[in-house]
Write a structure and sequence with these properties.
alpha/beta, 16 helices, 403 residues, single chain, globular, five-stranded parallel β-sheet, 6% strand
Length: 403
Amino acid sequence: MSVWDDLVGQDRVVEQLEAAARAANATATAGRSAAPVPGGNASLMTHAWLFTGPPGAGQITAARSFAAALQCTSPDLALGGTPGCGFCDGCHTVLAGSHADVKQVRTDGLSIGVGDMRDLVLRASSYPTGGRWSVILIDAAHRLTEAAANALLKGVEEPSPRTVWLLCAPSVQDVLPTIRSRCRLLVLRTPSADAVADMLVRRDGVEPEAARLAALAGQGNIDRSRRLAVDEQARARRADVLRIPLEVADLGGCLAAAQRLVDTAKADAEALAETQDAKETEDLKAAYGAAEGSRAPRGMAGAVKELEKRQKSRATRTRRETLGVALGDLLGFYRDVLAVQLGTTGALANEDQRPALQRIAAGGMPENTLRRIEAVLACRRALDRNVDPLLAVEAMTVALRAG
């Protein structure tokens, strides 16, 4: 299976990346320096790429697939084959996350600091150790602090001949103009529900009807659709969220629904911490050679404190992401309510919730639904501004009741 098969409904993007990978392979094979004009269009291949698109469209998947194609060592390349076979050692190690010359930068916290970015820029100045290219993939370029973004700019402005930067962000506006002007921009589109459903049937063995409903409910988010198709707990949580519009008939119901939503997000963060945090702490102590009951080795206390800081930041991010998924489900629900009220034909995102949609639609006017949609969006903005989650969600549920 080719690495490009993981990109669902992105034919135009795949075409551009395949062409660039072929050009990069020709450069690497000939042994020439790869130093195209930053951000220019004169070459199919360039040193910096920016992948944008709606959540779940596959920006990180596209960047990782491109990284694999750049490191592809398939024998078919000599016969004119397309890089990215998916079977060679280069492709396999990149997709497994173990290739020595591909560095994927993930952040568990809310931002990427300048220290981490300076280390990456220093790494980018060197040639690959064994692969064809040195690839640095930043999967959340919009989380760079201002200082970190300025440090990245230095690396992008003065690229090493064999270094490729792959940046992923929700939109081009989330990246500094000075950085995005030096990158080749690729915009992924929301894949169709039919394309996502077909992928779920072929790759995950999901029954066609269940795949169709999961694809519709995922609203173009491939990862979300897959979780809904294969994870019973994810389906139960979505059903719990979609009961909220029916439970806000009085103030008590509003407050109870808000508390339940926030508690669920907190429980998710704690469940992650219970397994991941403990393992990270144990691994850190083992790295310092700490023995149980003995005095902590020099320097370990500071490292543990820094780890705890990162873990706390990750817990905050997990709570926000869980609430973000719930708010996305609510937005989809009220968009469907509006579609029912306006008599729109066609499949709804929440087709399996049609009786509830019709009940809510019959109880108000489109104007009420629009105000409820705005209430959900306002809650999302409040969370982005670090408003206390419970206060933000309570304000939303009260607004949903008012309509």
